[in-house]
Amino acid sequence: MKFLGSSEKAIDDSSPERDEAAIHGTPLEDHQKSRWERSWPTIACGAGLFSDGYLNGVIGQVNTILKALYKKQYSNSPAQSNVNSIAFAGTVVGQLFFGWMSDHVSRKWALMTSTVILFIFAALSAGSYGGGSINGMLQALTAWRFLLGIGIGGEYPAGSVACAESTGELKEGHRNRWFIMFTNVQIDIGFVASSFVPMIVVLACTDNHLRAAWRICLGLGVIPPLSLIYLRLKLQEPEEFNRETMKNTHTPWWLVIKFYWARLLVVSMIWFIYDFLTYSFSIYSSAWLLVILGDSAPIWKSFGWDTVINLFYLPGAIGGAFLSDILGPRLALGSFVLAQGIVGFIMSGCYPYLDKSSTVGGFVVVYGIFLSLGEAGPGDNIGLVASKTSATAIRGQYYAIAAAMGKIGAFVGTYVFPVIQNNAPGGADSNRGGQDPFFVSSALCIFSAGLAFFLLPHIGQDTITSEDLKFRAYLEDNGWDTRQMGTKEYQMNSSSTVDEIGQSAGEKV
Hints:
MFS_trans_sf, single chain, 509 residues, disordered N terminus, mainly alpha, Major facilitator superfamily (MFS) profile domain-containing protein, 21 helices
């Protein structure tokens, strides 16, 4: 069963008005470009997500340093939770705003704007002052983190959508892997750096200079977006965007909603569940770190173990990138999240034997497999699914809504999981306190696999182009004039091409 939208009609692929060449002329992959000319837009659009991984992850290490520095004054302050969570709120705002901007203004300038925001507010976060008082400094850091979150959110619809569209010019059979390599894999590498870099900084500064250490860790976050500004300034709009945009006309929202609401709901639910589990399961890494290290270990050691935990994401993310091309995103997502659910049930059953200092190595290995499967499945493929299951004209907003639902899932999960633990028989510190969240998460993994297998459409190598053709056909069948689509320059060139074709046909007659 393929859930293709409640209003979608069957399309006759042999019909000339549905054929890509008849509508657009030269297919994307046939454009005369060198390998580098085809590849670097994908790199420039997607690589900014490394910044997001680093800037999202490093605040956890900064939070640890601030606790060590200011102890009860920080621990008893609302700033402790606000500094960690406020970027979530900013990210949702940024995703929704930049999703609209990338569709109605420009992919390129949405990317440039989010890059500049990342650079400015990463620097301001590192320099948080607040009048000289500790509370003022923490309030300033909270404010800058919210605004930084807007830039982080902008990278998702602006960068990922443009990256997906740019892969249409790459070699068929390799498109999914390169999208994943410069989106999800970049985020995961950023997470590894967000724990490894603070470990090096704290070792260099020593525990006597932690006030400098946390500012250096945040300040280094300006380097990745700064390194991308030139590449992104040289970008051109993706060719598919030039062909299909509705920015110069009114968007037929009622037709869009009828065509895509059901599919968007499914994609959003899968993303909600993925982030709900991914962010919430950080409680387990903290639990076994306490078993390994105890309360008196130096800060750099905890950062080193955090690096080990984050490294578990990479094998699944990198291997899953290639499997996404082989299996297809729908099957890869469903298969690996199903396997993750099975491993989760095993962990839940074995938890009483794994939650001991003598067997913590076994816990780490099984937990690492659990994390890797999540990255190979929804981690790699949910952004790809969100990027390629809608038409180019509304892709930024479609993607933004699904990604925002993911962040809401992360926010909800961080509150729900402790409730599950605390209400387990025996409380959070009992075996049931460790088992019950795994029961819940594993059941959600199985549910997510069902959504993927039965309700997601097939996503092939040319899905972006074919989806645009289906959407055009749907609009035409409902009386909407698709000649309004495309940039003004594209419309002029398209008219010239049509005239040339008509003249050539007349000569032949």
